[in-house]
Structures are given as C-alpha cells and as structure tokens.
Design goal:
Layout lengths: L2 H5 L2 E2 L52 H5 L4 E2 L10 H7 L11 H4 L1 H23 L2 H27 L5 H9 L3 H39 L1 H18 L22 H9 L4 H7 L13 E2 L3 E7 L6 H6 L1 H8 L6 E5 L7 E7 L25 E6 L5 E5 L5 E4 L6 H13 L5 E6 L15 E4 L3 H26 L13 H5 L8 E6 L2 H4 L5 H15 L4 E7 L9 H6 L2 E4 L5 H8 L20 E5 L6 E5 L4 H18 L22 H8 L6 E3 H11 L1 H8 L3 H12 L7 E6 L5 E8 H11 L5
Parallel strand pairs: 9-13, 9-14, 10-11, 10-12, 12-13
Antiparallel strand pairs: 1-2, 3-4, 4-6, 5-6, 7-8, 7-16, 14-15, 15-16, 17-19, 18-19
The chain binds adenosine-5'-triphosphate (ATP).
Length: 752
C-alpha cells in the first residue's frame, strides 16, 4: 500500500533520513538516480531516501513502499506522535489564562466609572419611586376591594375543598359509587379540619382587629394602611404593575456566537461561506464571549486563509449582519495571535453617542510634562488613550468639520500646561479657533493671508537655525549627560543650555505648504525639523484638511511619528496621513461617518493603530486652561514673545532679507531720526505682504510693534522730538538711523 497517499499530505522535499548518516549527505552535483533505483545499489550518488517521520525501520522488504515513496516525504507525523503537552501549555498554544480579576476592576478609571454609574442609577430609581409613593398608594387602595374578594373567595374554596369537586363529579358521571363514596369521605374529613383552621383564623383576626381598634391612633392607621396595601397587592391583576418604569431599558442585545457567525456569513467571503456551509469546518471561538467595558467581546478563529483584516475591511457589512449601528462594531486583529484571530468588540452604544469624558488636565492645579504621556482621548471602550509628545511629531488630518482643530487643541493645551515648553502657534484658517494660545505663545498668528503665512515661515526659519545651535550645544556636552544624544528632561529644564522643549503648531498647514511663494521652503524646513528636531526637543504639530502631495510634502507624511486620521474620503488621504498600506491593512478612516466627529485612527503611539476620540475642549474650557497655563508660565518666568505683547516674529519672509535691511532701505538720505509710525508706514509700502498688518495699527500700536521687532537686534527706540502733520512740535517714539546702520555693520548683514 502507498502510505504516502494514505497519509494525504505529501510534498517533494529532499529531506535527510535518520538511516543516512550525516556523512552520506547527498551529492547535489551528482546525477539523480533513476526511478526505482535502490539506494544500496549506488550509495555515493543516491539521493536521500525519503521516509515518513519516525518510520525508520518499517519498510517492506520487497521495496514496494520504497518505490511508491520515491522522491516523496510525508510531512505529517504519524498518529503515534505525542506532543509535549507541558510545553504546549506553557507556550499558551491552546490555553490562555483568563484574568482572575475582571479587567474593568483592574483599571481604576473604569472601576470608578462603573461605581459612579451604579450609585447614579440607584439614586435615580429611588428618587423616581419616592415621588410616586402617593400614586402607588392610591393605585393599591383602588385594587384592595378586589384583593379582599380574592382572599374571601380563596379561603372559601380552600375550606370547602372546591378544587376536588371535578373529581367527585367525574365519579358520578362514570357511576363509580365506590370511588365517589371514598372521595366524599376524604372531602368531609378535609372540610372538618379546614373549617376548624378557618374558624380559628377568623377568631384570631377578630381579636387582632379588636386590639388594633383598642390601640387606636397611629397603630390603627398603620395597620389599616398595611392591610389595604396588602389587599391592593393581592388584588393587582397579573398583567398590571404597581410601580412605574424608572429606567426605560434600551439594552443592547446580548452578543452570541450564533449572531457572530450569522454576521460573518453575511460578509460574502467565500472561505467563510464554505466553513459555515454544509459539511464545513465551522467557525470556532477560542474564548467565551464576555462583557468587556460597556460592550461585548468575542474572539473568533476565522476559517483558514481568512484574516482579521478581511473582516475589518467589511466593517459596515458586519454591522449590518449584527444589526447594530456602525459606531458600535469594532473588529480588530488579535495582535499577538495568528492573522486569522479576530477580536470583535460590540459596544452597547454608538461611539459618537457616548458623552465624552472630561479631560483630566481640566482640573485646576494640574500641569503637564511633554516628556510624559498626556491624556489625548478615549478608545471605543472608554479607556484612556495617551500621547507622548517629546521625541515625536504629530500630523492630524481629516476632511473639513471632522474635528481636526479640536484634536489639535488637546496636545497644544497639554504643551501649554508645561511651562518649560515654548509654543509657536499658527492657525492659518483665520477663524481664531486657537486664539486661547495668544496668552501663552511665544509666536502666534491667525489667518490665511500672506502676512501670517510669511510670519509662520520666518518662525520656521528661526526654529531651523535654532536646531543647529541645539545640535552643537548637545554635541558639546559630556556623553554621560546626553545618554542617547537626545535632550533629556534634566537638560530641557536647565536654562543654561537653551534646550527646552519647543512646540511648533500649524493648523490648516496646507495653506503654508501650498503657498505659491513660501510653500516650497516651508516644506523643506518642516521636513528637516521633523527629521532632526525630534532628538533636539523640537516638536511639530500639524493639522490639515487637504492631505495630498501638493499640500503635504512627502518628507513630512513619511517621517512624522504620531498620526491621527479622522474621517477622510478616500484611500489616498487615508494613507497620506496614517502611512503607506494602512488602508490595505484595514485601517480605514473612510469608514467613519459624518457623526463621528472627533473620532479617528491614532497611529504611531501604541504598537498598533487604535481608534480614539479626542477629548472635547470647547472655547471657554480652552480659555480657562490657557489662563492657568499663563499663570504657571508667569511663575516660572517663561512667558515670552507674543504672550507678553512682543512680536518677535522675524519679518522678511519674501526674500530672506531682515527687518534691519528693510528699515535701512526706507531711511531717506540725510535722515537721522525717524518716528516709528513713519518707518512702519514706509515698510508697509515696501513689503505690503509682510508689514501690511503693522500698518493697520494705530500710531501707538505701530510704535510698539517696531520696538518689539527691533528688540532682538539689540536696538531700542526712544522719544524723539519732531513736527506732526499739522506742523506742531511733539514727542513721539522713533529710531536713530545710525543704530540701524551700526547693527547692520556689526552683523555683516547676517539675518538673525
Ligand atoms: N472630540 C470631539 N467630541 C465631540 N465633538 C467633537 C469633537 N471634536 C470635534 N467635535 C465637533 O466637531 C465640530 C468640528 O470640529 P473642528 O472645528 O475641530 O473641525 P475641523 O476638522 O477643524 O474643521 P475645519 O476643517 O472646517 O476647520 C466641532 O464644532 C465640534 O462640535
């Protein structure tokens, strides 16, 4: 018999058999032996004789098997093989230890939420019924006559044994005298004893009534009320309730294996259909379906060849099969298991209907540390999701209105609550969504105009230059204080080194990167900052509603560490934000609906992308937090730049020239001292895109603006005597031309 065929699985593999010692290994250059050529006849050139594993000496002497097995090897072990059960158990191949303590009890926030819910629930139910006590009393009083009737009629029936009457009637009908006489005898005995008991009961009740009547007052009322309520309860029809419903249960249906299999079978996957069809291997569940947070969790072993991703791709169809809203159905791969293990979590409530929890850092007195994890949001199960900003950059993308700016507010406000972190914030939509940052930011700009975009670019240039200084400073430090050539919390905290965290935020960054003049340079600078700034304490937070190659340089989309993708329309946008192949791997932000505001895939923080909903921080809340952050910065002495009324943004984005060059350019020949407001007006004429906004200020504002902008160059303004438009002599703030020219000479015309 051909064992190979009987064993089913055979492959052509040159496997070394135990009979052949190592030194008789096949000579691969030698010609292959002819079929049927016994190994013994030509030992040196023989190919190894393939044999079933563990079947070393069982060959037929006539060599039949040997012939049939020529060139073939059984790859399955024979049935006699006993696996090492101990090893299997220890590696957890079959058995996974289930948690002794329920996961929700181990998580403090989940446990607190459950206790809070239980107390709230009990309080509501108690209050609801307490106010309805008069109604319930009236209801019972109304039903008490019926209850009295039921008691009297029931006692009568029992005493006179009316239940057994049909038996006696039956005996009469069948003319069974003997049986009838026997039944009557029994009935008479029973009625005699029951009459005695009922009589005693009536006498007892009479005596009790007399004593209650004698007691009078409260006792009489209480007993009477209790009696009425009791009779009311007895008189309540079986299809009616005494209490109203305090909580209308919209309980989600329990998830059962049957429902899961039904839903999987509805996906239209051929392998699944084969498995669940007649004679198929079925779908198995390696663990019981359990409650997990506010939902059900099922682990499913999909049929061979089907991956968890195949199911994730069809999340909408799965939701339809489960008859649950899309926002309740969250299939995930079991990351530490095989590719066919699916973890299906089905929430009781649509994720977008769940009330967002309060951001932990809203609480007064809390501060943050960009070196540590900051709370970003919650996942489908309400568990906290955190972000660590240091050594990372973040890209947030979505279609308009999906919640980008709200998501950006969370890391921005967390960074604001770290007084050591310098903030540079540019909101290029111009709606003032991030205007709370004005209170804390070193640089701040709002608007899609060329001036703001120019300021943003100038600030990026400054940061880029700052990177070089930081790199040099870090490299100059002893190796033991920079263990991984990175800025450490200790180095960042020291003001001597100037290595404190720097957080650069650009909302609607497509306006910057797709700008016809500044876009290219901005893209190159941002890419360089993303690549090099990470280790040097510079963090870039970008949000965009147009993730395409023109609006988001590939250098950024390829190198950014943390990515948060809210609802997008297609695969391209999805992969631009989350990374290449994410769509193919089932991580699809296209499945979010319009209602899923603030919900997205967060990649780069945990090992695997996770669903998260950012904390909801509305305008007033963000303002309150920014006030707190400002106070903390004031105390720490780190409130600088825009936040204290200075505008230290370096103008001159158009061609790389500096403010000093521009001021020098607008000085007229022979002019010695010029009022600041005049200089600003001339600067605005020279470069409207850069200085136009300054020119919109009143004369005092113009003077302040120029004073602040010249400060980094070491130039101060002073009160200068001159004549105003009407020819009247007056004192106003202005500059001395010699100071500008000296500064230019000193610096050799180098931009700071
Ligand atoms: N985490 C959240 N939870 C609940 N609602 C949210 C959340 N985030 C955002 N929203 C809602 O979504 C709306 C849009 O948010 P946001 O302004 O951040 O969108 P956007 O993507 O920045 O839009 P645009 O591209 O137009 O600027 C907000 O008004 C808010 O009500």
């Amino acid at each position: 018999m051909n064992h190979a065929k009987a064993m089913g699985e055979v492959v052509r593999l040159p496997v070394q058999h135990a009979d052949h010692p190592a030194d008789s290994a096949p000579d691969l250059d030698a010609p292959a032996a002819a079929p049927g050529n016994g190994g013994a006849s030509n030992p040196p050139t023989d190919p190894p004789r393939p044999m079933p594993f563990g079947d070393a000496g069982d060959h037929d002497a006539d060599g039949d098997d040997g012939e049939a097995l020529e060139g073939r090897v059984l790859v399955d072990r024979p049935d006699t093989f006993r696996p090492d059960v101990r090893a299997r158990r220890m590696t957890g191949e079959r058995a996974q230890r289930r948690p002794i303590i329920a996961p929700w009890l181990r998580d403090a926030s989940e446990a607190k939420a459950t206790v809070r819910w239980a107390v709230g629930y009990a309080g509501h139910v108690t209050g609801y019924h307490a106010v309805r006590v008069p109604l319930y009393s009236l209801r019972l009083a109304g039903r008490s006559p019926r209850g009295l009737y039921r008691v009297v009629a029931g006692t009568w029936r029992w005493t006179f044994d009316l239940e057994s009457r049909p038996l006696r009637t039956h005996a009469i009908d069948r003319r069974n005298d003997e049986s009838y006489l026997k039944l009557m005898g029994e009935r008479n005995d029973r009625v005699r004893s029951r009459l005695f008991i009922s009589g005693a009961g009536v006498v007892g009740a009479g005596l009790a009534a007399a004593s209650v009547a004698a007691a009078g007052g409260v006792t009489q009322t209480a007993v009477l009320a209790a009696l009425v309520l009791l009779l009311g309860w007895i008189g309540t029809p079986t299809d009616r309730r005494i209490l109203d419903t305090a909580v209308v249960s919209s309980k989600a249906p329990k998830l059962t294996s049957e429902i899961v299999v039904r839903a999987l079978a509805a996906l239209g996957n051929a392998e699944i259909n084969k498995a669940v069809g007649k004679g198929g291997s079925g779908i198995t569940f390696p663990a019981p379906i359990t409650r997990d947070g506010p939902g059900w969790r099922a682990e499913v072993d999909l049929p061979y060849g089907v991956t968890a991703t195949d199911i994730m791709e069809r999340r909408d169809r799965l939701a339809s099969g489960l008859r649950r809203p899309l926002g309740c159905v969250w299939p995930e791969p079991a990351h530490h298991q095989h590719a066919g293990r699916l973890v299906l979590w089905v929430g009781d409530q649509d994720m977008n209907q769940v009330r967002p929890p309060v951001w932990p850092l809203v609480k007064a007195g809390t501060t943050a540390d960009v070196f540590k994890a900051i709370p970003f949001g919650t996942d489908q199960r309400g568990r906290p999701v955190t972000l660590t900003l240091m050594y990372a950059n973040m890209l947030i993308g979505a279609m308009p209105g999906a919640g980008k700016t709200f998501a950006l507010k969370v890391p921005l406000l967390a960074a604001a609550l770290d007084p050591t972190a310098q903030l540079r914030v540019f909101e290029l939509k111009g709606t003032g969504d991030l205007d709370f940052a004005e209170k804390v930011a070193h640089h701040y700009g709002s608007g899609p105009d060329d001036v703001t975009i120019g300021e943003c670019l100038a600030s990026l240039r400054e940061v880029y230059k700052n990177l070089e200084r930081r790199a040099k400073t870090l490299a100059g430090l002893p190796k033991d204080v920079r263990p991984e050539n990175k800025v450490t919390p200790q180095l960042a905290a020291s003001r001597t080194y100037g290595l404190g965290p720097l957080v650069f935020v650009v909302d609607e960054c497509q306006e910057l990167f797709s700008h016809p003049e500044y876009g290219k340079e901005a893209g190159e600078l941002a890419t360089a900052i993303i690549k090099r700034g990470r280790a040097l304490g510079v963090i870039l937070l970008l949000a965009t509603q147009r993730p395409d190659k023109d609006s988001l340089p590939t250098g950024i989309s390829a190198n950014v560490g943390i990515r948060f993708c809210l609802r997008v329309m297609g695969q391209l946008e999805n992969d631009m934000i989350l990374g290449t192949s994410m769509y193919k791997n089932g991580i699809r932000a296209t499945t979010f609906t319009k209602q899923d505001r603030g919900i997205g895939y967060l990649a780069g923080e945990a090992d695997e992308p996770q669903i998260a909903r950012g904390y909801y921080l509305d305008g007033p809340t963000a303002d309150r937090i920014a006030d707190r952050a400002r106070a903390a910065r004031k105390d720490a002495g780190t409130l600088t730049g825009y936040a204290i009324g200075e505008d230290t943004t370096t103008p001159g984005a158009e061609d790389g020239s500096s403010l000093l060059d521009d001021v020098a350019a607008v000085l007229l020949p022979g002019e010695d001292k010029v009022w600041s407001e005049v200089i600003v007006t001339r600067l605005a004429e020279l470069r409207p895109t850069v200085y136009g906004a300054w020119n919109d200020l009143d004369p005092t504002g113009k003077a302040k603006q120029l004073t602040a902008a010249l400060k980094p160059y070491g130039i101060t303004t002073a009160q200068l005597w001159g004549q105003d438009e009407t020819g009247k002599g007056t004192n106003r703030r202005g500059i001395t031309a010699a100071h500008i020219l000296d500064a230019l000479n000193d610096r050799g015309n180098v931009t700071p």
